[in-house]
Amino acid sequence: MKxxxxxxxxxIFLKIRGKRENYHEIVSxxxxxxxxxxxxxxxxxxxREFKIIGxxxxxxxQNTIYKAYLALKAAxxxxxxxxxxxxxxxxxxxxxxxxxxxxxxxxxxxxxLKMCNETLNFGLSLDELAHIGLKVGADVSFFIYNYGSANxxxxxxxxxxxxxxxxxxxxxxxxxxxxxxxxxxxxxxDFYNPISEAxxxxxxxxxxxxxxxxxxxxxxNDLYKPALLGYPELKDYYxxxxxxxxxxxxxxxxxxxxxxxxxxxR
Length: 266
Prior knowledge:
Layout: E1 4-20, E2 23-44, E3 52-53, H1 64-76, H2 79-87, E4 88-93, H3 104-119, H4 126-133, H5 140-145, E5 149-154, E6 158-161, E7 169-172, H6 180-191, H7 197-205, H8 208-214, H9 217-220, H10 224-230, E8 243-244, E9 251-254, H11 255-265
Parallel strand pairs: 3-4
Antiparallel strand pairs: 1-2, 2-4, 2-5, 5-6, 7-9, 8-9
């Protein structure tokens, strides 16, 4: 069966714009990480219940792939989808760390939706798939569109391609399970300070390389300080020149710059 790649992402910057009911509105630059991805495929199985094969710490009902299946089934009411999942399991070669701010769960869900759309010839547009994906998670839309770089706003549903060179990244992921709701809660209680529309527009126009070279982790990501407060051990992993992705726990830096500096030292 065909193998599909579910890529990771990093947040070049992540700023809070305000609140919408129980959610926070963001403005962020997502960039795909071409060197880090999960591999998904359909594999035959004997039992007819929905099955995911892979290294996951959660049960099936909590898995974003299963949630994507339920959302797609509700949207299409397709018997062929039910039969597909009664006949095949979703095999996931898991390489993106969980609880890491790299979007692994959202990317898996988006990739699963696209797998089903292609395999069953649903003919759903990317916009339609993104709408379905929003029922699974806010970041799913970015992965549906498969942009290399994009400005993401609202609660994640507004995805605008940003045309620029895609960077190579070095990523460090501490073995910490960080709760995104906990980090956002700390931000809301202790750090709430949304940026203005003018500031957001300025960031959205700047290239990712420029942002990484002129802003540090705390300046670029509004969730870094609350993550440090909730998980003080994070400071043991931070190094100057590294940035923080999402609500954590991953740090990243531009690998191209590191290679260039190494070449200059030789």
